[in-house]
Amino acid sequence: MAQKKGLGRGLNDLLGTSDASRSPRSKKTDNDPSSSPEKEVKTVTKEVIKEVVKEVEQKININLIEPNKSQPRKQFDEEALQELSDSIKKYGVLEPLIVTKKSDYYEIIAGERRWRAARLAGLKEIPVVIREYTDKEIMEISLIENIQREDLNPIEEAQAYEALISQYNLKQEEVAERVSKSRSTITNSLRLLKLCEDVRQMVMYNMISTGHARALIPIEDPKLQYETAAIVYDQKLSVRETEAYVKSILQAKPEEEKVKKEPDKDLSVFYSDIENKLKSILGAKIAIKASNNNKGKIEINYYSQDELDRITEMLYSINKELM
After folding, report:
1. Do 210 and 203 touch, CB atoms closer than 8 A?
2. Closest by Cα among 6, 39, 52 to 181
3. Which residue among 51, 112, 137, 156 is the active-site one?
4. Is 112 a catalytic residue?
5. Comma-separated ranges of CATH 1.10.10.2830 domains in the chain
6. CB-side exposure of 128: number of CA atoms within 13 Å?
7. Where is the composition biased (Basic and acidic residues) (predicted)?
């Protein structure tokens, strides 16, 4: 994997696979049984990473390996995963996973995609290199690896930054330093977490860009924010057009609130009950948009082509039963 410039300390330093770690002197130390754990401590720029040097590749039962729950990457392209699986069937796993030993299993530090593809290929064992890191170091390594590979979508990346800040009391400047990004990049990324869940999903599935998403942040009402995002997507508005549209909404909102009538609570409960029943039937989020003249519309939300196909087939089958 070609290492991208601009990532400062980089993944190789964190994983201990830099040129320096491969020098004859390092190998001699690794193979010397008299070397103490203290001598195995490697000093990296502004930080000390403690690692148990077990560079010898070994094979482990794939069922004893589990993914890291704090792994920033949550989505894996199924088609690309299948292609990697087919390659593994022919050539095997060419690059070992980096794992750490837990009580009765091994946790993946780097290589979850290879692990998933290997399981898909039916492998019983998989090559690994065992290392020892703190939880914070594992999170940093996973984040940097995915950034270098450009595997994270914008929401996953923002959530990873937020985890480093909230779980390990890091400041934005410290996070920026660790991943070799500017502080403004981290700040803009974190702002995406102000979006409602539905709009986050649209960003994750690349339905709208991060520029569009940031333009929607000033809309605090989740329902209105999602409705606006849907209009942006349907009408293919540019970022500037989105910013102008959001501005017009925010300017008109105070006037609307003045003439807005108190909603009928009984009807709200009624609509909510219908939404929940339809959601349980279709397995998708349902929204009933009622107007003041007993008219309205029912919206069915989906976030992938597979989900749309599933919902469509279900509606077709219901229609056949009624006929």
Report:
1. yes
2. 6
3. 112
4. yes
5. 132-192
6. 26
7. 27-44
Query: Which residues, at least 6 apart from 81, have a Cβ–Cβ distance to it below 8 Å?
Result: 113, 116, 117, 120
DSSP state of 171: -
Determine the pLDDT at residue 252: 80
Instruction: Please tell me the distance from the alpha carbon of residue 157 to that of residue 150, in angstroms, as a whole number.
Output: 10
Considering only CA atoms, which of 160, 80, 161 is closest in space to residue 114? 80
Most confident residue range from 47-51, 72-76, 93-97: 93-97
The pair phi, psi for residue 2, each rounded to 5°, is -75, 125
CATH class of the domain defined by 55-131: alpha beta
3-state secondary structure of 246: helix
d(CA 230, CA 226): 6
pTM over cut 0.70: no
Q: What is the mean pLDDT of residues 254-276?
A: 64
C-beta of residue 66 within 8 angstroms of C-beta of residue 106: yes
User: 65-66 and 106-110: which strand pairing?
Assistant: parallel
Token pair 């029943």 is found at 277
Strands 286-290 and 106-110: unpaired
- Fold annotation for 132-192: Arc Repressor Mutant, subunit A (1.10.10)
The answer to whether the beta carbons of residues 311 and 286 sit under 8 Å apart is no
233 has pLDDT over 70: yes
Task: Indicate the helix (H) or strand (E) that contains 318.
Answer: helix 305-322
Q: Where in the chain is the domain with CATH 3.90.1530.30?
A: 55-131
Q: Are 58 and 128 in contact (CB under 8 A)?
A: yes
